[in-house]
Amino acid sequence: MSEAASRRAVGRRAFVIGRAAAAGTAALAGPLARPASAATFGWRDDGSNYVVDTGANLVFKVSKTNGDLTSLVYKGTEYQGYGGKNSHIESGLGTSTVTISQSGSTILIAVAYGTLRHYYAARSGENNIYLWTNRADTSVASTRFILRVKAGLFLNDEPDSYTYAPTTIEASDVFAKSDGQTRSKHYSKLRVIDYNYVGWSANGVGLWIVRSNHEKASGGPFYRSLLRHQSADGGGLYEILHYAQNQTEDERFGLQGPYVIALTDGGAPSSSLYPGTLTTSWADSLGISGYVASGGRGRVAGVGITGRDTAYPYTVGLANSAAQYWGSARSSDGYFSIGGVLPGTYTLTVFKGELGVHTTSVTVTAGGTTTLNTLAIPSSNDPSNASAIWRINDWNGTPSGFKNADLMTYAHPSDVRAAAWTGNVVIGSGTETSAFPCYLWKDVNSGLLVYFKLTAAQAAAAHTLRIGVTTAYANGRPQVVVNDTWTSAIPSPPTQPSTRSLTNGSYRGNNHTFTYSVPASAWRTDTGQYNILKINVVSGSGTTSYLSAGTSIDAIDLLA
C-alpha cells in the first residue's frame, strides 16, 4: 500500500467529534476507569519540567519556565507537539511562575502569568489531565488552549482537515482540494450545545478534549467555533472560551473549567467527564483561584413552557455579564432544570430552535433551587403565529431548510457541492424553501426574484413584508422592490458581528426582522398575473464575491 493510500485508510477510521449519544459505546476514561494498581503515581523534577506519572498509562511534562505542556506520552508513544511547538494557552505564555503540589491522590501544577492563572491536575490511576484557566482581564488576548498533536498519528480527510487541500482560497485558513471540495479548521459543523468532546481515534488510541461547561465563555449554546484542525504537519485540539470570530457577546472573565485531556483505548471518553456530569469535589480544597464548589452554586428549574411549537426543540438559556448556562426543555411539557449556576441575577431566554421567543429575569442563590411556575410564551412573540398570505421557510432563528444551508456549516460557499446560489422562486411551486438560497450577497445573488399571485381582495390592501435574518457580513441588508413600481427605503443595519461568518461555517449572529410596509398601489390588480418581489443586498462595505456584503436568511413572509 502506498504512503498516500495508507494515510487515507487511517483517515477513514480516525474522524470523531463526540456527542453525548456516543457515550453508550464509550471506553471508560474517567474516575471510574482506574487500573488495579497505581503504584507509580507521582511526580519528579527533571530540571526543565515537572514530570507527572498518573500511575496508569499516561506520563506528561509541564515546563517550569512558561507552563507549556511539553510532553504527552500514552502507552509509550509521544503525542504532543508539532513544528517545534508545545501545547499551551494562546500561542504560549512568557516567563511564568510554575509550582507543583500533591494532595493525596491528586497532583496540581499551577501556572501564574501576570493576572492569568492556569492549572493542570492529575488523578491517581487516570489517563486524564484536568485543566482550568482563570483569565481576569484582557492582558492575554483571548482564552484558547491548544493541544498540539504530532503529525501522522490521526490523519483524516474531514471538513476541518486540510491535509489534502493545498490551495488557499480565502485568508490563510480556507483551502480547496483538487476535486473542488473545501476544507478549514472552522468547518466543525457543530454548535457548543451539540458536542461534549472533540478528538480522534485510530490504531486503538483515542485522544480527546472534553469541553468545559463554558460558563465563562461567550456566544451562548448555539455558538460555533473551531474545535480542531489537522494537516500533514500535525493537528490541534482546542478549548476556546472567547474567540474573536462572529462574536455576539462581550467577553466574560474568571475561572473556566475543568476541561479534560482524555486518552482511551480508542473509545469515546467516559460520560462521567462530560460537562453537567463531571463532579470535582476532590478539587474543592486545592486552592484554585476563582474555584466555586458545588455547594456555592444553585439551580433553576421550570415546571413547563406553554405556547411552544412542538415541531421544534426548545432551549432555555441563562446569561449575565459574568456567566452563561443552558438546558433543554422537555419535549412533552417544556420542563427544564439547569444546575451548577453561580449565584446572581440572570436573563432567562426561551429559544424556539435558535430564535428567542420569551425572556424573563431569575435570581439564583448558593445552595438553593429557584423554581419557576409555567412560562407562557405570548403568541405575538413567535413570528410564525402571524397570519401570512405566503411564507418561505418557518421562523426558528436559523437558515435550516434553505438551499445549501446544511452544507454551509462545514464548507465554503464556493464548494463544488453547493447548488447554484442564483435562481428565482415561485410561491405555490412546492419548492419555495429548498430553492431559496440560505445566504444572499451583494456581489453573488443580489436581485433574487420571488413570484406570487394575490386575490383581488389581497391586492386591494397594503401588506407588511417581513425578512428575518440570522447574521450579516459587512452590514449587508435587504432592500426590496415590488413590481418595479415601489422601492423600499434602505433599512439601517442592525448590530451584527464585524468578522467573517458566512464563509467560515457560521450563520449565527443577532436575529433581526426587517419589516416593509408595502402600499396597495404596488400590487398588480390582474389576479392572473404574478407580482414580482426583488430582494437586493445593499451596503457600502465588503469586498467582492463571497466576501461582499451578505446576510443569512431565517424566513420571509407577506402578512395577511
Overview of this structure, please?
With 560 residues, the chain is mainly beta. The strands form nine sheets. It has an eight-stranded antiparallel β-sheet with strand order 1-16-17-20-11-10-9-8. A five-stranded antiparallel β-sheet has the order 2-3-4-5-6, with no helix packed on it. Strands 30, 32, 34, 37 and 39 form a five-stranded antiparallel β-sheet that branches. Residues 1-15 and 19-38 have low confidence and may be disordered. The protein has three helices and 39 strands. It has three domains: 3-150 and 190-283, Distorted Sandwich (Beta-galactosidase, Chain A, domain 5); 294-381, Carboxypeptidase-like, regulatory domain (Immunoglobulin-like, Sandwich), CATH 2.60.40.1120; 383-559, Galactose-binding domain-like (Jelly Rolls, Sandwich). Strand 3 (49-53) and strand 4 form a beta hairpin. Helix content is 4%, strand content 39%. The N and C termini lie far apart (65 Å).
